[in-house]
Design brief:
Elements lengths: L1 H12 L5 H40 L5 E5 L5 E2 L5 H6 L3 E16 L2 E10 L3 H4 L6 E4 L4 E2 L2 E7 H7 L9 E6 L14 E12 L4 H4 L2 E5 H7 L6 E2 L1 E6 L5 H12 L3 E4 L1 H4 L1 H39 L1 H9 L4 H37 L21 H32 L1
Parallel strand pairs: 4-10, 7-9
Antiparallel strand pairs: 1-12, 1-13, 2-11, 3-4, 3-8, 3-12, 5-9, 6-7, 7-10, 8-9
Helix pairs in contact: 1-12, 2-10, 2-12, 2-13, 10-12, 10-13, 12-13
């Protein structure tokens, strides 16, 4: 094995009788370098988008969310909350009541969701960091207050300096709707908006109003021990899987425990599918680039046909000669993969540091430039993809041409 590698390196860098062979070899390396560079950059872009969206979701969503397996109501008498807080890695938890409601402010109205939270919500989430106007507060003395999504506030025409309260209507939880007096089939509450939050996601900014949990329970006709979900903040220095297993064991099969990705499983699944499709497309381009290696290796074998006869006369068997040229073709692919990865790392670093590729000047964007994130797993994937295809591509010409020149 060592002998075949040494001879392959010697053949690869030895002076060729025809300069065109050197040119074709360089073209092969450049094509593979470009393909590896493109694949690494595209994978890093998907990684950057994944990280960016995760950071946006984390400002609003808890690390873990507990929901009932059936229905939408959690009975707190069925959960040992004291034991939940004693689990290693659980820092705190918040109780949440959430359901759809109709909002009316002046002459404008819109359908959205009321989220009733307790005093621990701002510790479980990062709500304070996304308040763009006013403050986060749900109750002041005997008056209920709340914060409104920025897009919803704009749609309703809400301004924090207005005295007019926000009216909230929700259908009665029990009983039939009286079509003659529809107004009597709804429960109503009022709150004073004291803050606006901005997650930069319409699924939050365009529908949510956050208020006190007591007001939400009264609006939806819930008992004090009835809620919709529990948000949990965990210590990230402890294994999240270990914490999830401990919580799941405590809660049992009547409850579903979701981490951040599972809370947005549709989005993250779509991102993974898009990344996989992009990988397949670029891998196909790499496969086309690898055909240059086949042509290059064919010329190199033809160039060394006399050396093959010499090695044969010295006692080298066909397997040894096959390994020599397989390694020679593989080294060309490795050179392209390594050069492409190095250039890709440099380009990604420049994008992270200086934001070379930016979004258009017009419009409101979460970030100024395209997000990228370099992962070791992506580097390994690119290297394995290019080098494996190069190794497979080297096999065919070696098996066919070496046999021809070895036996001639």
């Amino acid at each position: 094995m060592k002998l075949s590698i040494l001879i392959a390196i010697r053949y690869l860098f030895a002076k060729k009788s025809k300069n065109i062979i050197n040119i074709i070899s360089w073209i092969s390396v450049i094509c593979l370098t470009t393909s590896a560079l493109a694949l690494l950059v595209v994978l890093s872009v998907f990684g950057g988008l994944h990280s960016l969206m995760g950071s946006l979701f984390s400002t609003f969503d808890p690390d873990l969310k507990v929901e009932p397996t059936k229905g939408k109501i959690i009975n707190l008498t069925e959960i040992e909350l004291d034991k939940l807080s004693q689990i290693e890695g659980v820092e705190c938890y918040t109780l949440i009541v959430e359901d759809f409601a109709l909002f009316r402010f002046g002459a404008r109205q819109s359908v959205g969701q009321v989220m009733g939270v307790d005093s621990m919500f701002n510790k479980v989430s990062a709500i304070d960091s996304i308040i763009v106007e006013g403050i986060f507060r749900t109750k002041s003395y005997d008056m209920y207050e709340g914060v409104v999504g920025y897009a919803l506030a704009d749609q309703l025409g809400i301004r924090l300096n207005f005295i007019t309260p926000l009216s909230i209507f929700a259908p009665e939880r029990t009983g039939n709707v009286n079509m003659a007096r529809i107004d009597r089939s709804f429960r109503s509450e009022y709150l004073q908006p004291v803050g606006l939050f901005l997650v930069n996601q319409i699924e939050y900014d365009g529908i949510y109003v956050i208020t006190d949990i007591e007001q939400a329970q009264r609006l939806f006709d819930y008992q004090p021990y009835e809620i919709n979900r529990i948000g949990i903040k965990i210590d990230h220095e402890i294994s999240s899987d270990k914490i999830q297993n401990a919580i799941s064991e405590l809660l049992g099969s009547d409850f579903i425990l979701k981490n951040r990705e599972e809370q947005h499983d549709t989005f993250y699944k779509m991102m993974k599918i898009e990344k996989f499709v992009a990988y397949l497309i670029l891998s196909f381009i790499i496969m086309i680039s690898v055909f240059n290696v086949i042509g290059t290796l064919s010329l190199l074998i033809f160039e060394k046909r006399e050396s093959i006869k010499t090695l044969r006369s010295m006692g080298a068997d066909r397997q040894l000669i096959n390994r020599i040229f397989i390694f020679e073709g593989w080294f060309i692919s490795l050179a392209g993969a390594i050069c492409g990865i190095i250039l890709g790392i440099i380009l990604i670093w420049l994008q992270q540091t200086f934001g070379l590729v930016r979004f258009g000047a017009e419009g409101n964007y979460v970030v100024d430039s395209y997000p990228v994130l370099l992962k070791l797993s992506d580097i390994i994937l690119v290297f394995i993809t290019v080098s494996t295809m190069g190794l497979v591509a080297a096999w065919y010409p070696v098996k066919v041409l070496v046999k021809k020149h070895y036996l001639s």
